[in-house]
Amino acid sequence: MNFNYSEDQNIFVNSLEKLLNDRCGPEARSTLLEQDLDYDRALWQSCAEMGFLGLTFPEEYGGFNGSSIDAMVASIEFGKNLAYLPFISSIILGAGALRIAGDDKQKQDLLPGIADGKLTLAVAFTEPDSRFDLSDIATSGNSDGDGYRLNGRKAVVFGGAEADLLIVSARTSGEDLCSFDGISLFIVDGDTQGVEKTPYRMLNGQKAADISFNNVKVSRDQLLGAPDCAYTVIEHVVDLGTAAICAETLGALEKINELTLEYLKQRHQFGRSIGSFQVLQHHMVDMLIEYEHARSLVYEACMKADSDNAAERGRAVSAAKAFIAEKGRIICQKAMQMHGGIGITQEYELSEYVKRVTMAEFAFGDVDHHLIRFADLDD
Questions:
Q1: Contact at 8 Å (CB) between 183 and 172?
Q2: What residues pair up with 122 in beta bridges, in sequence order?
């Protein structure tokens, strides 16, 4: 597999890397936490001005008509720099749902504003009892005159704490709460009466929210895609998000390996660097090999993430997610072990990368979920 970026992607990476190096870091993250902010608005606007937010949007809606590979390139950089930005929640998931299912008016009304950094989105698909089953939806969307009434609760909505718009899944027909049919998607203003958000910080410092919908009135114009048959859209959108978070994790693991290798060169014991000890060299080689294996799978997942072939796309995405979740945990454990006590302190940046990888392990399905999904799709 050719891992080399194209000329345009190299220019894009260099620009994004410079921007993030200047604006991300321990002090910036500390400021966000102290002020209880979800993300750096100024940095987000800078990303918009440089065209990064419209990367995968069609040109007619203010984008660059890029692919999931281009989104992967950006996600890797966000992971390497521990950026607190709603790129996956808003651009990959929210805007991804619009690109796949939205009509021309919805795209024209919303995508340019998202690309300009004026609007942020989040998808509210998971529920408290659904675990990773995207079809297990108890939230109801009952017909009410010229619209619908939404009632229910969504859990762990990434970026949902401060999103302007929510893409909400609800059951609009049928009584089987785990059926693939009878599911619809709605575009809901985050400030609509009856929408109640309970925000909180996750392990990695980023924000999520539990969101309740209490008799929320939505019009038929707020339907996203065809009614009662949204499951295939949801599945595709989550595959896009899963591929992107695998890429973000890959960037974090690359940085973890760099930090560990540098530490082995600098830390001295018994009159020489600990990197000269053969057993630590073996551990470091194992970490680098696992990273390269993960990179191959993540690249393939991102190459297939735009595919309409659900089985082919799902196998590639689940293979990457299961592998990078399992091996990422091992890489983190080895890194902390070789760093010793400093590796688990809050003051040292390794711990922040470990938190990011650990959180990603369970986002959009854990190892067991994706192994089972891979086997089912293989059949």
A1: yes
A2: 166
Burial of 363 (0-12, 13-18, 19+ CB in 10 A): buried
- Structure token pair of residue 200: 């909180």
Neighbours of 35 (CB within 10 A): 7
DSSP one-letter string for 164-212: SEEEEEEE-S-S-TT-SSSEEEEEEETTSTTEEEEEEE-TTS-EEEEEE
Q: What is the residue extent of each domain of the chain?
A: 7-119, 122-229, 232-378
DSSP 223: B
* pTM as predicted: 0.95
pLDDT tens-digit series, residues 302-331: 999 999 999 999 999 999 999 999 999 999
Q: How far apart are CA 159 and CA 11, in angstroms?
A: 28
Contacting residues for 108 by C-beta, under 8 A, at least 6 apart: 61
- pLDDT, tens only, 212-238: 999 999 999 999 999 999 999 999 999
Query: Torsions phi, psi of 5, nearest 5?
Result: -80, 155
Sequence-distant (≥ 6) Cβ neighbours of residue 196 within 8 angstroms? 211, 212, 214
DSSP characters over 148-174: EEEEEEEEEEETTTS-SEEEEEEE-S-
Nearest to 190 by CA among 224, 227, 221, 218: 218
Asked if the model's pLDDT at residue 175 lies above 80, the reply is: no
Tens-place pLDDT, residues 48-91: 999 999 999 999 998 999 999 999 999 999 999 999 999 999 99
For a pLDDT cut of 70, what percent of the chain falls above it?
99
What residue has token string 């990011």?
356
Bigger pLDDT: 146 or 301?
301
Q: Which CATH class is domain 232-378?
A: mainly alpha
- Could you tell me the CATH superfamily of domain 7-119? Acyl-CoA dehydrogenase/oxidase, N-terminal domain (1.10.540.10)
- Which CA distances in Å does 280 have to 85, 253, 255, 273, 324? 35, 18, 18, 11, 22
Structure tokens at 336: 């902390």
CA pair distance 309, 332, nearest whole angstrom: 34
Q: Characterize 314-329 residue by residue with b for buried, 16 or more Cβ atoms within 10 angstroms of its Cβ, and e for exposed.
A: bbbbbbbbbbbbbbbe
Q: Please, what CATH class does the domain formed by 122-229 belong to?
A: mainly beta
